[in-house]
Specification:
four-stranded parallel β-sheet; single chain; Rossmann fold; 12 helices; alpha/beta; seven-stranded mixed β-sheet
Length: 406
């Protein structure tokens, strides 16, 4: 049989490592002939845009370079697969194409919305007795997929966020005047990535002094009061805030700074909470204040990627192939933490139905009583995920990235 791998949703620093994992495992098995990659996720399947990965990854150096390249060389999409009852022709088209290409297994790398696609496709295959395995490989910097201890891509993003806030702290402390720096971090529903900045405390850093997450209501009045209290001890107050924080009424705090537009899955495009809070501090406190939106840098900064993250992303891609060869389908691969010290995980499978369209929130019990920081349990959880550095190939002082030859 032949197999195909694709990716969907937001990029990370670890997607290509999972593609490499799928490839490296597949080439070991004589039962697998062609190893395809589909450009732009499920859209590439529907539009006949495949690439032969054996031709692209024909030496060890290429595979290693792929693993250390950020984003996804196969591109991505935000395509929402319709329900079968709404448009069966899409499913028929996918199956027809898979049969033409002799595809026996489809591996989809993605987050919550991608697992929705895995769920729908695998269910259609089962209900129609079609022997094509569909396996989900998790990835998201949001770390909000159910049942997996964490998601590939998250550890590298967390490492970047913590390192960047550490550098921001050094910069902010050079002046004697009081200042406030607000760092806006990605996280629509769950505050895992913003909370991960707490690892700086493990090495004696006091920043970030305040951390605000979507899991608890945000009050602008309390926010100003929190800053004033911190300013009694710190001349430079550093704040980490999730883009998705909401007020008591459940509205995004920065709604007036946003476009109001939605993506294909009905999610609002978020941004602007940092700027909104900057203006608030400027008006209410009057000290020097700036906001910093980390934006896409936090999900694709492979120059500071976590080796633990990249290694796990490769291994989970490899295990996905083994799961399909063992007859599993309609599953998502998960990382199950065995121990913290020494850090150890096992890779298992779970029914993707249990994952799709659910959100794993940051634990409320790990948030402090004042709802403006996190507890030590969070540090113990995050710290193993950011360990290790990669041997990045450089050229003229710049990291070298793998590119698909067209």
């Amino acid at each position: 049989m032949n197999i195909v791998v694709a990716s969907s949703g937001g990029p990370t620093s670890a997607i290509n490592a999972s593609i490499a994992g799928v490839y490296l495992e597949a080439v070991k098995h004589s039962s697998i002939n062609k190893i395809y990659g589909a450009f732009n996720g499920i859209e590439g399947i529907l539009e006949n845009r495949l690439v032969d990965l054996r031709e692209q990854l024909n030496d060890d150096g290429a595979v290693e370079l792929l693993k250390n390249t950020p984003s996804t060389v196969l591109g991505s999409c935000r395509y929402k697969l319709p329900k079968v009852e709404d448009d069966i022709t899409v499913y028929e088209k996918v199956v027809t194409y898979f049969k033409e290409k002799d595809i026996g297994a489809f591996f989809y790398i993605g987050g919550n919305d991608s697992m929705d696609t895995v769920c729908k496709l695998s269910r259609y295959m089962k209900e129609n007795n079609i022997d094509i395995k569909v396996i989900g490989i998790p990835k998201t910097i949001d770390n909000d997929l159910m049942y997996t201890d964490h998601t590939p891509g998250f550890g590298s993003a967390a490492k970047y966020v913590a390192a960047t806030i550490s550098e921001i702290t050094r910069d902010s402390m050079v002046y004697s005047a009081k200042s406030v720096t607000i760092v806006e971090v990605m996280g629509r529903y769950a505050g895992w990535l913003t909370a991960s900045s707490c690892v700086l405390k493990e090495r004696g850093e006091s920043a970030p002094h305040l951390i605000y997450l979507p899991e608890v209501p945000f009050s602008t009045e309390k926010f100003i009061e929190d800053i004033k209290i911190k300013q009694e001890k710190h001349k430079a107050v550093i704040i980490a805030v999730s883009e998705g924080v909401k007020n008591e009424e459940g509205c995004y705090v920065a709604e007036c700074y946003q476009s109001g537009e939605n993506d294909a899955f009905g999610h609002k495009y978020l941004a602007g909470v940092g700027k909104m809070l900057e203006d608030l501090v400027k008006n209410e406190i009057g000290c020097k204040v700036r906001s910093i939106e980390l934006n896409v840098m936090q999900r694709c900064s492979s120059h500071i990627a976590s080796k633990t993250d990249i290694d796990e992303a490769e291994h989970i891609g490899s295990k996905a192939v083994l799961a399909a060869l063992n007859g599993e389908t309609g599953k998502m691969m998960i990382l199950s933490r065995v121990s913290n010290n020494p850090y150890k995980v096992e890779i298992q499978t779970i029914d993707v139905d249990d994952v799709a369209n659910h959100v794993k929130y940051f634990p409320i019990e790990w948030i402090n009583e004042d709802k403006n920081n996190v507890k030590n349990e969070a540090i113990n959880y995050f710290l193993p995920l950011i360990q290790g550095e990669l041997n990045i190939k450089m050229d003229k002082g710049i990291p070298v990235h793998f590119r698909i030859k067209k």
